[in-house]
Amino acid sequence: MHALIQGIILGVLTAGVYALMASGQTLIFGIMKVVNLAQGAMVILGAYLSYQLFTSFGIDPLLAIPITTVAMFILGVAVQLLFLRPLKAEDRSELSLLVTFAVALLLEGIMSVTWKTSVRSINTGYANSSWTVFGYQITLVRLWAFLLSIAALLVLYLLLNRTRFGRAIRATVQNPESARLLGVESSRVSALGFGLGAATAAAAGSVYGLLYPFNSGSHYDLISRLLSIVLLGGLGSIGGAVVGALIVSTSSAVVASAISPSWSEMTFFVILLLVLLIRPQGLFGTTARGAI
Amino acid sequence: MDFLLSLQGVIAGYGAGDILKGVDLDVSPGTVTCLIGPNGAGKSTVLKTISGLLRPRTGDVRFKGEEINRLAPRARLLRGIVHVPQDRSLFPAMTVWDNLLMGGYVVKDQKAVRRRIDEAAAVFPICTRRAHDQAGSLSGGEQKQVELARTLVLDPGLILLDEPSIGLDPKSRHQVFASIRRLAESGRTVLLVEQNARSGLAASDFGAVLESGVVRLVATGASLLEDPEVARLYLGAGRATALTMGGITPDTGRSPSTITSEGAR
Ligand SMILES: Nc1ncnc2c1ncn2[C@@H]1O[C@H](COP(=O)(O)OP(=O)(O)OP(=O)(O)O)[C@@H](O)[C@H]1O
Ligand SMILES: [Mg+2]
What we know:
The complex is a heterodimer.
Chain A (H helix, E strand, L loop, with lengths): L1 H31 L6 H19 L3 H24 L7 H24 L14 E4 L2 E4 H23 L1 H11 L1 H6 L4 H26 L6 H16 L4 H21 L2 H18 L14
Antiparallel strand pairs in A: 1-2
Chain B lengths: L4 E8 L7 E8 L4 E5 L6 H9 L6 E6 L2 E2 L5 H6 L2 E4 L11 H8 L6 H14 L2 H4 L10 H13 L5 E5 L7 H16 L4 E4 L3 H6 L3 E6 L2 E7 H6 L1 H7 L4 H8 L10 H8 L1
Parallel strand pairs in B: 3-8, 3-9, 6-7, 7-8
Antiparallel strand pairs in B: 1-2, 1-4, 4-5, 9-10
Helix pairs in contact in B: 3-6, 6-7, 11-12
The complex binds adenosine-5'-triphosphate and magnesium ion.
The site of magnesium ion (MG) has 4 residues of chain B, from α1.
C-alpha cells in the first residue's frame, strides 16, 4: 500500500512535465495534421539551453523558461517556414514524418557538437532536498517541476482560450474551412502554431532538465513516450494529452515502486495497446481532428 | 439601377474542365436572391467565386462597382462579403460566444465587434440564451441561427448562404427562412442557394435558375414559383415526383427528395 501511494505521488508529480511536452505535440498535430517527430529533440534542446543559462549565469530554470520559450518559438516558426510549408498539402502528413525526423537528427547533431555527448544535469541548490509527509517522500525538485509545468500549461490554456490568436488556432483545429472563410490565414496560424508547440517543448525542456540527466540522444526515448501519451489521449486534444500523461506516468511510477523498475518502461506501452484496441481514436479523440 | 453584386461571363472550375460556363448574375441591394438548380449545376461554385475561395478563369465579379476578381477571401470579407458554406460551419468545441467573436476575426475595431455581437444577439436570442454552451451541443436549427447571427458581426454588405435549410426539421427550416426575410427587411442583401426550391423562392425577391454552369432564367421569386417549367423541374411536380419514388440519383448519391421534398410530399 505504501509503495502504491508513493508511486502515485511520484507519478502525478512527474506527469506535469509530460503533459506539457505532449500538449505541444498535440497542438501541432491539431493545427497541421503533422506528427512532429522533432518534439523530443526540441525538448532536449530546451533542456540544454536551460542548462547553459544555469551553468553560465546561474539562472534558475524558472527564470530560464521565458528566455528558452521565446528562442524556441522563433526556431519553431523557422522550421515550419523552411521545411514544412514547402510541402504540398496532399502529401504533407506523410512527408512531414520524414521531414520532422530529419529535423530531429539535425538538432541532435547540433547538440552533440555543441555540448558533446556526455550526460548533463541541472543541479540546483534544492536538487536534493526533500520532505517527508505522513511517511511519504516528496522531493522539492519534483514538486517545483510539477508547479512549473502546471503554470506553463495554464499560460498555454489562457493563450488558446482568451486571446484572438488562440481562438484562431482553435477554430483552425475544429473547422479549417470555416476558419478560412472567416479570414483566418491558415499559413500564418500554422507557422505561429508550430512556434507555439516548440515554445511549449522549450518550457518542458527546462523542467525536464531539472528532473533528469540527459544527453543529445535522450530524444529517442522521449519521442516514443510522447507519441504514446498523445495517442492515448487522442491526437489533437490537449485535455487528452494531460490525462494521457497522468495515466502513463502514474502507472509506470506505480509499477516501478510496487513491482520493479524494470517493468515500468513496459507498462505504458501495454496500456497504450489495450486502449488503442478498445478505442482506436484514443481516449479523447472523439473526432478525427480532435478539439483544442 | 446600380447592382450591389454583378457577375459577368464568369467561367470557373477546379481541375481540367469548366464548371461555370459563363455565369451572368446581378443582385440588387436590400434584396434576397435565390439560386436554384440541379445537383452539380455549380451553385456552390458560384458562391465560391464571389467569396474568393475560387478564382474565375475569365469573367468579371463586381461588388459595389469594384472589380474583385483578384482579391483574396480575406480582402473580400473586409469589404463585407460573408459566405456561410453548405456544411455546418460553427466551431463545435468553442462556445457560442467565441463563435460570434470569430465572426469578427478580420475586424480590427474590437469595440465594434462587441457592439455588433450584442445587436446580433438581440435578433437571434439563442446567442444569449446559450452563449456559454459549446456550439456543438446545439441542435441543427439552433446552429443555423448562430451561423446567421455570426454573419452580422461583420456588418456584411452581402450574405452568401449555401443551402441554409439542408438537414433541418420543418420547424427549423421555417425559422431559417423567416430569419432570412428579417435580414432583408433590416436592409441586408442575401444571395442563397437552396434545394428546397419552393421555400427558398417564397422567401426571396428574385430567383435564378442555374443549369449546367449557366444561368438559364432570372425572374421574381413569385413568378418562378408559378412558372410551369420551373415547377416541373424544381418544385416537385411531374417528373421529379416520379423520381422521388425511385430513390437515389446516380450522379450525386443524394436522394432527390432533398431537392423537392416539400413539393413532392
Ligand atoms: N473542390 C472541388 N474539386 C473538384 N471538383 C469539384 C469541387 N467542388 C465541386 N466540384 C465539382 O463541381 C461541380 C459543381 O459543384 P457544386 O458544388 O458547385 O454544385 P452544386 O450545384 O452546389 O451541387 P449540390 O446541389 O450538390 O450542392 C460538381 O460536378 C462537383 O463534383
Ligand atoms: Mg452545393
